[in-house]
Write a structure and sequence with these properties.
Strand content: 5-15%
Strand order of the largest sheet: 3-2-1-4-5-6
Amino acid sequence: MGGARQRRGARLTPRLRRPAGRPIGILGGTFDPVHVGHLRAAIEIREALDLAEVRLIPAHVPPHRPQPAASAAHRLAMLRLAVRGVPGLSVDDRELRRAGPSYTVDTLAGLREELGRRPLCVLVGDDAFRGLPTWHRWQALFELAHLVVMQRPPLAGVSASVPAELATVLHARLADGPQALALAPAGRILQQAIPPLDVSATRIRALLRAGHSARFLVTDGCLRYIRDHHLYKD
């Protein structure tokens, strides 16, 4: 082979094994509808962790909750309206194009094939993280991405009250700061504070069903779309 010979005993460290580019955040959910809590959390995390972007990925068939009230087409349209013109936020519809349950591990496998060793960061809430052992092939997630656990102050620590099988993984993988996420493509867990915004899609749907205003809980563009398409009515 061409090139200089490798020293005897030297460790191979090819460039392709190093992370390539700034990390990308992945925020999944039903987004039924997308609201300011989703958007603000994505912006806060992107800026705090210096992510290249955050991709919002709507689920087609959510494995851990009932089917969404709005159709996939409506939820996707509202997401695109919500992030239009917002730097660093984008929409990825790959789960809507895939049949069967929207397993995160399958989504990450597809992203990993496309992005090589680019660091990926799955953004999850504290409750979702504690339920991680119920996810499909949950241990394989760490081969594909980092996990960023979003918590509202005061921070109790992600190690509080987690299942025993998750506690072991947490102890081995907990990162001491955001810089660790850029040093490897996957495998770490980071706790990150986000502002306390008490907004939920469940409450928004209830307000709309009751004929009340949901303004400032969703973007104006999404609210117009909801009204134009008569969504979330009994």
